[in-house]
Amino acid sequence: MDLLNTLVDKGLRRELPTREEALAVLATSDDELLDVVAAAGKVRRQWFGRRVKLNYLVNLKSGLCPEDCSYCSQRLGSKAEILKYTWLKPDDASKAAAAGVAGGAKRVCLVASGRGPTDKDVDRVSETISAIKEQNEGVEVCACLGLLSDGQAGRLREAGADAYNHNLNTSEATYGDICTTHDFSDRVSTVQQAQAAGMSACSGLIAGMGESDADLVDVVFALRELDPDSVPVNFLIPFEGTPLAKEWNLTPQRALRVLAMVRFVCPDIEVRLAGGREVHLRSMQPLALHLVNSIFLGDYLTSEGQAGTADLAMIADAGFEVEGTDTTTLPEHRRQGCGEADAESTAAEDADAPATTVPTPSDETRRDLVSVRRRGAGTDLPPNA
After folding, report:
1. Cβ distance 216 to 174 under 8 Å?
2. Which of 88, 90, 70, 89 is nearest to 80 (CA)?
3. Are the C-beta atoms of residues 1 and 35 closer than 8 Å to each other?
4. How far apart are CA 171 and CA 355, in angstroms?
5. Is the dihedral of CA 37, 43, 46, 52 positive or negative?
6. Which of 136, 209, 241, 254 is deepest in the core (most CB within 10 A)?
């Protein structure tokens, strides 16, 4: 297929595809799916070999968020029966993180619900970062605390945070449809503050919220413009009790096409398979490893993932290897801070490109696949790692 040959050539040169080419990837048929995966896999292997980076989530504060993000089980007004608790003590958070590190995680992601941290919250998280780093040599720590105020990014960096996560989630044009308590520009500003403070930026998206192909391409191109080091790709988990509970729009094939499109647009960036992979990819998860080079180990914030041992077995069975702490994830040219300096962008703005229709949800949705987290942080039960 000429399209795939072109995209592989561009990916190997770190050259951006056009918006039209990215849309074409999402429009490929199921009959072409393995060709798409194979093509994107060549780009993935060029920059990351067969390594898979493992990340582990610790939910520092769960539920009761004042923001109204429609996709979130922790949102204002959510009736989802999730765990709700206030801040974990630094020692408890460090113990939870240690379980993930023992399971092979290279990065620990500290997440707290809420609009953004107070200065006292930053102090608390700083203590947690110090505790984790003292007990786990070589581990990376990423903070995800919401919108940052002036000076907070610098304080987190001084405390030892290696990265900061704040996702764009969807296109700027449709952002107001999923959230009204803050806007797209607020999220962009927080990512830029993290970068300015010297932290590695982590910012991604959520697919499956009823968006069009054009929306998906828009948010991925917006991410590429921000140039984060890591792009997590989440697939909506339609929690009962949230406004998007009925949005079952994804098939495993659709999810793989989304991942392939992200890889072509972000060839040398860490692409992370994040929340919802078990729900939507199901038995096709191993194919996704040919597209992404990073996954979460074990459970998520408010939902349970597959067993950590199953994650490790899947990686080994698919012929990949877990990336150790002695290996740097990003290619050398990105580590030197010149990720796009010599990569000519051929992205063509195509405002008139048609938006494809959103798939119609099936009458036979698998609601049994959503399993609310009842173990690990905030409980007396051991974590899944």
Report:
1. no
2. 70
3. yes
4. 13
5. negative
6. 209
Helix or strand (DSSP H, E) at 134 = helix 119-135
pTM of the model: 0.88
- The 10s digit of each residue's pLDDT in 237-262 is 999 999 999 999 999 999 999 999 99
Sorted by sequence, the CB contacts under 8 Å of residue 18 that are 6+ apart come out as: 346, 347, 348, 350
- Mapping DSSP onto H, E and C, the string for 8-29 reads HHHHHCCCECCHHHHHHHHCCC
Structure tokens at 142: 């990423």
Listing DSSP states for 252-264 in one string gives HHHHHHHHHHHHH
d(CA 181, CA 159): 29
Q: Which of 28, 32, 36 is nearest to 11 (CA)?
A: 36
Separation between Cα atoms, residue 266 and residue 288, nearest integer Å: 15
- Percent of the chain clearing pLDDT 70 (strictly above): 91
C-alpha Rg value of the chain to the nearest Å: 19
Q: What angle do CA 191, 96, 143 make, to 5 degrees?
A: 10
Rounded CA-CA distance 377/382 in Å is: 8
- Residue 30 CA to residue 41 CA, distance in Å, equals 17
Residue 289 CA to its chain's centroid (Å): 14
**Residue position matching structure tokens 């780093």:** 133
φ, ψ for residue 176, nearest 5 deg: -65, -20
Give the integer Cα–Cα distance in Å for 38 and 21.
17
Under the banding of pLDDT at 50, 70 and 90, the label for residue 270 is very high
- Rounded Cα distance between 259 and 256, Å, is 5
